Amino acid sequence: MKGHVYILSFFSFSEYLLLLCLLYSQTPQKKKVVDINLQKRSFMGIQFLIWWGGSWIKNNGSNFNVVLNTMNPIEKINGDGTGIVKWLLDEIFRREKDAERSLMHRFNIATELTERCKDEGELGLIGILVWLRFMACRHLTWNNNFNVKPREISEAQDKFTNLLQKIFLSQSNDRETVRLMMTFVGRGGQGDIGQKIRDEILVLQRNHDCKTGMMEEWHQKLHNNTSPDDVIICEALLNYVKCGFKIDAYWHTLNTNGFTKKKLASYDRPIVSEPHFRTNAKDGLTCDLAMYLKTSKAVHSGADLESAIETCLSSSFRDHNSVTVDYVGGLSLKLQECLKFIKAHIHDENIGPLMEKLLESRIELHPILCTAHGRAKDLLFLDLALASAIRTKMERGLKDLNFAHPPEIMFYITLVLENLCLSMVNNEDLIYCTKDWYRVCESYKTSDGQWALQAKAILDRLQLVLAERSQDYHKKIQPSVQYLGNLLGVEKHAIDSFTEELVRGGLAAVLSKLINCFEPILRKVANLGCWQVISPVEVCGFITSVNELITCQNKVYRKPTVIIASRVTGEEEIPYGVVAVLTSDMPDVLSHVSIRARNDKVCFATCFDQNILRNLQLKEGKAISIQLKSTNLIISDISSSGLSLNSFIPSYIPRGVTFKRKTFRGKYAVSVEDFTAEMVGAKSCNIKFLRGRVPSWIKIPMSVAIPFGAFETVISEAVNKDIANKISHSYKLVQSGDLSKLQAIKEAVLQMSAPSSLTYELKSKMRSSGIPWPGDEGERRWNLAWRAIKKVWASKWNERAFISCRKANINHNDLCMAVLIQEIICADYAFVIHTKNPLSGDVSEIYTEGLGETLVGAYPGRAVSFITKKNNLKSPIVGYPSKLIGLYCKPSIIFRSDSIGEDLENYAGAGLYDSVVMDEEERIVLDYSGNRMIVDKAFQISLLSRIPEAGKIIESLYGSPQDIEGVVKDGVIYVVQARPQI
C-alpha cells in the first residue's frame, strides 16, 4: 500500500475502541481501510498525518485530530445552577500550545471547537467567547516561532467568521453572544485579501526607499506572522509622518495602545529600531501608509467603522449570484446615503447629526441583518462598527453635554437607548422602557415636578434592567472565565474583572452614565433631594457594608450598627443590633422590611446619590450620627467613645409579647359566619367584621378557613408519623443553632398526607360558600390545592420568621397557623393602604402604594405611591412605578397565612409567613406606556380618590389606623384583608 498513517500522539481514554481511517486512492470512489485495535487501552484520541504517493496530506496545514472520548454534558460548578461546558474548556486548554503557534492555528482550532460544541447551546459559545477575549487582551500568546503567510491567517479568519455568520443566522437566541465573539476576530478573507498585507508592504518599501531599519524589521514580522498589532504600528507610523516626522508622535500612539519597546522586541521577528524616512516623502508616505492601514484593518479589524463601510459600499459587495445588491440582502439607497454621510463627518466635533445618522444606519440595516446571503457577515461587522462608534462618540461627548437642558439630554438618552435595543436579544423590557420614554419626552414641560417624577421612574426602571442584565452576564460568563482562566494561568485581576470589563465596553455602560448624570437634575425639579426616608429615626452607630441585606439577617451585632446595603428586596428581617439600614435599592415604603423597620424604630432610607453612599462605605467601622432634616438625612462623623457599647440594648426589643397557643376545635373547615378568635387569626376575623359593614361599592371576597390546630392534628395522624418524627428531630437541631434544618422541616411538611375527613369538610364548606372546589376539575387540581395549604403551614419555619421570633424572645413553637381561603380576583391593579402616613406619622394623611402588581413581592422597583389628606381626597402622585415584572393569575384559589403572630401589638409579624396561590402566577414584563392609570388623567384622579376613600371608611369602622390590602378589577375595588397598622 502506498499510504501510511503516522500516529503522532495518544491521549488517555476509558474504553476499547476501533479507529477506521479512510484513505482515498487515486480513484476517489475507491477507499482503503486501516483498522487500529487500541486493545482496551485508555485513549482520549489521536493526532495523525497521512503519507500518500510521496507527499504529506495535512488538515489545512495542521495535524488531523480524532477525539475518541465521549464528551461530557454541561457540568454544573455552582450551587445556583450556573455551569460550564467542562469538556470544551479542558479541550481548549489542551490545544492552547498548538493555538499559540500562530493566529492561523488559533482560528482553525476555534472553528473546529465551535463546530463540535454547537449542540451545547449558549454555554458552549460562551466558552469560545472567553477564550477569544483572553486572546484579544493578550493574556495568551499570538505567535510562537512559527512562520505563517498573511493570506493563511486571513483564510483561517474567514473560515471562522463564516461559521459565526451561520450560527448568527440560524440560532436567534445566541446572537448576542455571537456579536460579542465577532468583536474579537478580524473579518479575514480568501486569497488576495490576506496576501495584500504581504505584497503592499513591499511596494511601500520600494516606493520610499525604506528597505532597512525599522521598516525592514516590520516587513519581516508581517511576512512571518501578521496580527492586529500591525494596525496599531501602522497608525503610529502614519501619525509620525503627519506630525512632521516627530518620533514622540510615533511613541505616543504606541504607548497609548499599550505598546512598549520591550513588547516590540518580543516578536519572533523583533522590531528594535525607530522609523526614519526621507523628509521630502511626506505626502507619498501619508497616502501609502493610509492605504496600507485600510488593508490591515480589512483583515484584522472587522468592527472598524471606516473599513466596514468601505467593504459594504465597495463595488465588490454583491450577492451570491454576483449581481449588485440594491436592497434585499444588501444596502438600501437610504442606508448608502447614511454611510456616506458618516464617512464624511466621522470626525465632526458636533456629534448630534453624526449620532442620528449612525442610528438611522442601524435601523435601516436591522431588517437585513438576519437575511441569509453571501455577505451577511460583512453587514454584521458593519452593525458592530456602527454600535461601537455610537459608544465611543457618546463617551467622548459626555463632557460637552448641557445636563441642565433636559431636551438635549433626552435626545441623547433616546439615541443610546434605541441603539441598545438593536443590539440586545430578548429585549422586551428595553422596548417597553423605550416606549414609555417616548411618551415622557413628548410631554416634557419645563420645571414640571410631575413630569420629572415620571421621567425618573422610567430611568430608575432602565437602571434596574441594566443591572439585571449585567448580573445575568456575570452568572453566565464568569464561571467559564474562572475555570478556563485558571487553567491557562491568566492573572487573577484579569479573571476577576473579565465580565465587568466586557459590560463596561458596551452601550449599556454609556446609557448608565447618561442616566447617572441626568438624575440629579430630575431630582431637583421633582424636589426629591438625595434621600427617601422610609423609617424616620435619629440614631448613632458604626458603619458596616454588605452587598445584600438578606446575607446578614440572622447575624447578631454586639454594637449599634449602621448597615450600608446595595440590595434590599423588601422581604428581609433586620438583624439584631442594627440601628439603621441605608441603601441605593428602592424597596417599597409599604414592603415588609419597611414596616418592620418603622415598628422596630430602625432608621431606613434609600439614597439616590451614589457618591454619598461610596463615601459612607469608605468609613467602614467608623461611628456616625444620623439626624432628620425635613425629608433628608444629615449624617455626621462622631467619636466612637460617644457610643456606650456595654449597655447597648436595641430599643425595638418587644416587651411582654407572647403567643397564646390555640387548640383544635374539631372542625377542619369553617365558613366566614363561624369565624372566631379562638379558631382563626385576625386576618380572617377582620374579613368577617367588614362583611355587611362597608358600602356596597367596596367588595369583600367570600372566604373559608382551615382553623388553628388543624396542622397539629393532621401531623399526628398515623399516616404522617414518620414525617412528624423527622420534623421533631430537625427542630431540635434548629434550636441548637443549625438554621439550615429549617428547610428540611419545610420539605417534610410538604410530604404530609391529607386525612379524608379534612378533604370532605373543606369541599363541603367551599361549595356552600360559593368558592369553586378544585377537586371538581380532577384529582390533580385537588393535589395542587393541598400542596398550597401545606406550603402555608410550612412557612411557619421560614428563616426570617424564626429569626424574628428569636429576636423578640417569643417561643416559636407556640405559633399556630390558620389558613384563610379565598377565590382569586384576577385584578388589574393591587394596592396597600396605610391610613396613617407611615413616613411622617401624620394621622390626617393616608399613604397608598400599589398599581405595581408585585407590590409586596421581592421584585425590584417601586410601585405608584400617593398621599391623600382625609379632608381632601385629591391625591397628587409622589412616585411613579418602576417595577419590571408583574404577577398575573388566571382564575384560581389563594391560601393565605393567618397565624396568631401576624397582628400582635408591638410585634411586626405581618409578612413573615406565606400566602400561596394554587396555580403559578404568570410573570409579565410590564408596559406602562399605555397603562390607563398612567396616561388617562381622569381615570387616575377617580381611582386615586376612591382607593383612599375606602381606607378612610374602613379606618372609621375600626376606630384606629389600618393596614389594608386590596385590588381593582374593571374599576371595582375589592378589599382582601385589613389589620391594625403597626
Automatic annotation (TrEMBL):
Residue span, Pyruvate phosphate dikinase AMP/ATP-binding domain: 786-981
Claim: Electron transport is one of the keywords in the record: no
Cofactor dependence: Mg(2+)
InterPro entries, alphabetized: ATP_grasp_subdomain_1, GWD1_pHisD, PPDK_AMP/ATP-bd
Record field: transmembrane: 6-24
SUPFAM superfamilies: Glutathione synthetase ATP-binding domain-like
GO molecular function, one term: ATP binding
Residues annotated as domain Alpha-glucan water dikinase phosphohistidine-like: 530-641
Recorded coiled-coil stretches: none
Keywords, sorted A to Z: ATP-binding, Carbohydrate metabolism, Kinase, Magnesium, Membrane, Metal-binding, Nucleotide-binding, Transferase, Transmembrane, Transmembrane helix
Similarity remark: Belongs to the PEP-utilizing enzyme family.
The protein's assembly and partners: Homodimer.
Protein name: Alpha-glucan water dikinase 2
Source organism per UniProt: Dipteronia dyeriana
Lineage per the UniProt record: Eukaryota, Viridiplantae, Streptophyta, Embryophyta, Tracheophyta
